[in-house]
Design brief:
Elements: E1 3-5, E2 8-11, H1 18-27, E3 32-34, H2 47-50, E4 54-59, H3 62-74, H4 79-85, H5 90-99, H6 122-129, H7 133-142, E5 150-153, H8 157-165, H9 192-208, E6 222-225
Parallel strand pairs: 2-4, 4-5
Antiparallel strand pairs: 1-2, 1-3, 5-6
Helix pairs in contact: 3-5, 5-9
């Protein structure tokens, strides 16, 4: 990622539906290629590629995002994340990623994908940001302020992507993926203190998107769309 088609650039924050999105775009027949490494930010896309396409991205509320990250990490897929997770419980993981405290021996901040290009000091950038890892990563990938043109809510991807592409995207035609991955026995459950940790670290960004707490409903499927004529990095 970013995943580039003739018309779009999809920038993928992990645990926000990227595997499913790639399959949908492929099945719809969009010619696609990858630019750069792994889950790279939008600003790494060359100007000549960016300026002719609509950049879109997916995001979810921080409470469900931290839970999804932890579930994936402790499965051991991929191995670099399992090593970073180091057997942390869900509570320990949420504390570490909301307090920027993952221990001095860890080179990168619990990201379960290779951080490229090599040499970027993501850990220092995150720690010095003063925000939770969810907020830092979203802004790192998508821009601060947003440089993507459209943000879709992960919990409503069928509706949001249908609106974005202008055609029906149904569960029957495009079933979910990653639903059969073996998950840990410990539930990823929040107590009131953990909820407060996330709100303190990531509440400003979450609230700006309508995410006021865990399990919130009623947010739009298309969370944000660049105003017509709004600036982009390519401008």
């Amino acid at each position: 990622m970013p995943l580039v088609t003739d018309e779009h650039i999809y920038v993928h924050m992990p645990s926000t539906g990227g595997s499913w999105m790639g399959r949908v775009l492929t099945k719809l027949g969009y010619p696609r290629a990858h630019v750069g490494y792994g889950h790279d930010p939008l600003f790494t896309v060359p100007k000549e590629v960016r300026e002719a396409r609509v950049a879109f991205a997916t995001i979810r509320d921080p409470w469900s995002w931290y839970a999804s990250w932890w579930r994936h990490a402790v499965t051991g897929r991929p191995k670099d994340v399992a090593a970073v997770a180091g057997g942390l419980s869900f509570r320990e993981s949420v504390y570490a990623l909301t307090h920027r405290d993952i221990g001095p021996g860890v080179a990168n901040p619990g990201v379960y994908f290779p951080l490229h290009p090599k040499g970027w000091d993501h850990r220092t950038a995150w720690v010095e940001s003063g925000v939770g890892f969810y907020t830092w990563l979203a802004r790192h990938l998508y821009g601060d302020p947003w440089e993507v043109d459209v943000l879709l809510d992960t919990g409503q991807l069928y509706e949001g992507l249908s609106r974005f592409l202008g055609r029906a995207i149904t569960r029957e035609e495009f079933p979910p993926v990653n639903t059969s991955v073996e998950r840990p026995g410990e539930p990823a459950e929040y107590d009131p203190e953990m909820v407060a940790w996330v709100r303190e670290a990531d509440g400003e960004l979450a609230a700006s998107l309508g995410y006021t707490g865990p399990g919130v409903s009623g947010v739009p499927s298309v969370l944000w769309r660049r105003p017509v004529g709004g600036p982009t990095r390519a401008d």
